[in-house]
Amino acid sequence: MKYRLVVINIILYILCYMVDIIVGGGKKVPERPPNCLKCEFFKVTWDPMFPRSCEIFSIKCTNLPSAEVFRATGSSCPSFKLNEKLT
């Protein structure tokens, strides 16, 4: 019985994903958030509990800030800007 529910949930997920692609004009959802280490707004803090931060969103976290934005919104970070000093 549990196996059937898992299969049904997977099928529904795939169908919803396909509808999103068709309705959204073929845009795919990125598989992962952008790399904050290459972003202009990424900063390292002195707080050992929250060593990474983002100037745009004013957040401090243990993970990369773009991962937190991706987890909270389900979409890629809208403020990512490649740092010209790193290129």
Structure, explained:
This protein has 87 residues and is α+β, with helices and mostly antiparallel strands. It has two domains: 1-30; 31-87, no CATH class. 36% of the residues lie in helices and 10% in strands. The chain is built from two helices and three strands; from the N terminus they run H-E-E-E-H. It has helices spanning 2-23, 65-73, and strands at 42-44, 52-54, 59-61. Strand 2 and strand 3 form a beta hairpin. The longest helix has 22 residues, at 2-23. The protein is elongated and about 50 Å long. The relative contact order is 0.15.
Quick take:
The protein has helices at about 1-25, 65-75, and strands at about 40-45, 50-55, 60. With about 90 residues, it is an alpha+beta fold.
